[in-house]
Write a structure and sequence with these properties.
The protein is α/β, with parallel strands linked by helices and about 300 residues long. The chain has 8 helices and 17 strands. It has a 7-stranded mixed beta sheet with strand order 5-2-1-6-7-9-10, with helices on both faces. Strands 12, 13, 14, 15, 16 and 17 form a 6-stranded antiparallel beta sheet that branches. Strand 12 and strand 13 form a beta hairpin. Helix 1 runs parallel beside helix 2 and helix 1 packs parallel to helix 6. The chain is elongated, with a radius of gyration of 22 Å.
Length: about 300
């Protein structure tokens, strides 16, 4: 007879949604902790995080604390009485009192093949650095940043056209299934975590808004990866006629002229870099919708 274990889920982003769905199919989820609603879009309308919307759909209790260290958070967790807590892209650091609360600890579903790309933005880091694969790791959390012992991990290939959205979707599907296949063994005591190796450890720092600005003194292949990595946030941009031009799809072409020189190939706008050119396949001028690069060029002067 299978033991019944209660859990609490902590997550925020789209990546977290698939993990929550898989978890809720197999275990009683006593509650969900996610980040607060935030303004989004042109109108800065208050928007719920994806995990909140999924938790409401599943009729699960939700709290959205501004700070995890508030006494109310610990009181709620104690009332929920979780045997273990699952964390997936929650976005805040857990204090020791939370890590120590459940008897089986806190289990993290991390979107990389640890120890490569510990930290806040592992999916974007893998694309930015041209990795041909990444993965998902199920680990028992400790006070460090993604340094806890590993329960399971699985590699996932990165396709040359993958962006942070498509890769996140692939990793989330793998992560949800890997979590469920791992939990039974861990909770029954037949699967023991093993320490992470430090050899090959890398860190993916938190992304800042200004990171999306394209620097044409860098190689075109690097900028093409940046566009794919930052498609969701903060987005890739360049300055054109004193306004930001948003870019979400590009292709590397043969360069022409000095870095920053603008030219045209096959009716598409291109910008030269220190090594090669960057063709702008899909762009969004200030105050307008996304459009094909060729359509943008037809309505633009002085490219």
């Amino acid at each position: 007879m299978r033991m019944i274990y209660r859990t609490v889920f902590m997550g925020t982003s789209d990546f977290s949604v698939s993990i929550l769905e898989e978890l809720a199919r197999q275990y009683p989820v006593a509650g969900v902790i996610t980040q607060a609603d935030k303004p989004a879009g042109r109108g800065k309308r208050l928007t719920s995080p994806p995990v909140k919307r999924k938790a409401e759909e599943l009729s699960l209790p939700i709290i959205q604390p501004e700070k995890l260290k508030s006494p109310e958070v610990m009181e709620q967790l104690q009332n929920w009485q979780p045997d273990f807590i699952v964390v997936a892209a929650y976005g805040k650091i857990l204090r020791q009192n939370i890590l120590d609360l459940p008897r089986f600890g806190c289990i993290n579903v991390h979107a990389s093949y640890l120890p490569r790309w510990r930290g806040a933005s592992p999916i974007q880091a893998a694309i930015l650095n041209g990795d041909d694969s990444t993965g998902v790791t199920i680990m028992v959390m400790d006070p460090g940043v993604d340094t806890g012992p590993i329960l399971a991990r699985e590699k996932v290939s990165i396709h040359p056209t993958d962006d942070s959205i498509t890769l996140s979707d692939k990793l989330a599907r793998v992560g949800g299934k890997l979590l469920i296949s791992t939990l039974d063994g861990y909770l029954s005591g037949s699967l023991a975590p093993f320490p992470q190796e430090e050899d090959g450890a890398t860190y993916a720092a938190m992304i800042q808004k200004e990171d999306g600005i394209l620097d044409f003194s860098r190689p075109a292949v690097e900028l093409e990866r940046k566009v794919r990595a930052f498609i969701d946030w903060p987005g890739a941009t360049m300055s054109f006629q004193g306004q930001p031009l948003n870019i979400r799809k590009t292709r590397v072409v043969t360069g022409k002229g000095l870095p920053g020189n603008r030219f045209v190939v096959d009716r598409f706008p291109c910008v030269n870099t220190i090594d090669g050119g960057l063709m702008l396949l899909e762009v969004k001028p200030a105050g307008r919708n996304w459009m094909n690069g060729a359509d943008f060029l037809r309505g633009t002067r002085d490219w």
